[in-house]
Amino acid sequence: MNRRYEDVAVGEELPELSIPLTRTMIVATAIASRDYQDVHHDPSLAVERGSKDVFMNILTTNGLVDRYVTSWAGPAAVVKAIKIRLGAPNYPGDTMVLTGTVTGKRSGGRVEIAVRGVNRIGPHVTGTVVVQLPAERAQGSAA
Amino acid sequence: MSDHGSGAHSGEYEDRLQAWVGRELLTRRFGQDPVNVPMIRHWVEAMADDNPIYLDESAAREAGRDGVVAPASMAQAWTMRGYAASVRPDGEPTGMDELTGLLAEGGYTSVVATDSEFEFERELVPGDRVSVEEVVEAISPEKKTGLGAGRFITTVRTYRDAAGEVVATQRWRLLRFRPAEKPAQEPAGKPAGKPEGEEAEARPLRPRPAINHDNAFWFEAAREHRLVIQRCADCKSLRHPPGPCCPQCGSFAWDTVEAKGEGHVYSYVVAHHPRHPAFGYPLVIAVVELTEGTRLITNLTGVEPADVQIGMPVVLDWIDPDPDLSLPAFRPADADAKER
Fold first, then answer.
1. Domain that holds residue A72
2. What is the pLDDT of residues B79-96, one digit of tens each?
3. Cβ–Cβ below 8 Å for A83 and B42
4. How far apart are CA B104 and CA B223, in angstroms?
């Protein structure tokens, strides 16, 4: 489903998305982003470097925030900005719950969404995403 | 805190670090492979992203594209150097290697990414060759964080296509830190705000102060580790918390003076419950009276709650919970004298 600029209202909430953080997923996403830092796949080295376990890399957080917003906005949406800050690490065995709220509508069909991803330690990610949505008449020419 | 003999606080070291601001860490370098479907597939599978525009040509055309596109968030992945370069560096040191070395010299040997701010100019499509270059924007003073003392390094990365056109920019912030030491190595006792065993865990952000037109100057000074006191420009009386009008003479004219950073505990409480995840407990919250005469509500560091006493002399310390927040705290003046 493609969400159109006209259909979106400031204050609208995105449906919550719960992401189970398995060890395999944390490693698979790190490797898919070509990030071979040991803290993202080697538990004993992660502990040596002051962490309690391996943890999700920031490229994956970007990828999940991207997925979360575009799955709501629809395939016609074009992502124009993803700005995130990391807090509590995403460790294996935890679950991250993503929530989002439309915080602004700008010219050019652009919509700003505030996103927050919380695990059981606290907020893992807070940030904003800007997507360009198709207009009523200009459907199919979003790019 | 304890001295590491690293010179991490010396003016000379600070100058060498700050000389990096504005310098290029990475000259323009292309990713090893052009944007391609196998890497996109690997990414969307791992992310469980079922947006069809990444793999399905006809769905992508229906959604207004000429064909499949790469996920926007993948921009950085195209220029990652991969496994071989991670385990067998090619021996050609970049500015990044040099800066990393300089930070290691200051004891900042661990790293964690804290911020990524991407802006995308256009979607990437298979066949695009993506390059990246990186420039240092800022290096913070040493800040105490939940992970240990460290410095935030902010850089700007510019991603371009083969024609040199910018496809994305990314402001990127890393915390380079000295892993927090075990409490046994801290002669002044662990800071009251950080329970043992949790040193390595990044805490959620503290609640933001309610900053307004009348008090912004105070928080801005705090970010530079300066404790200032508002002073009436007419009758010269000092006041805190900040406000628009002098309570003594009614004047709206004011300036500030910098506090010496000495005072005593006027009163205090130890909070156990309710708990907010951004803070460590038990949490000592004190009213400290400065030698200048004003009082402020603050946290005490480097002291066990049971050892806090009303009247106890304290000196200024700083806590830096995250890059945007620095707050004055106070620690016992005695412990400070013992350490030196």
1. 5-132
2. 998 898 888 777 677 888
3. no
4. 24
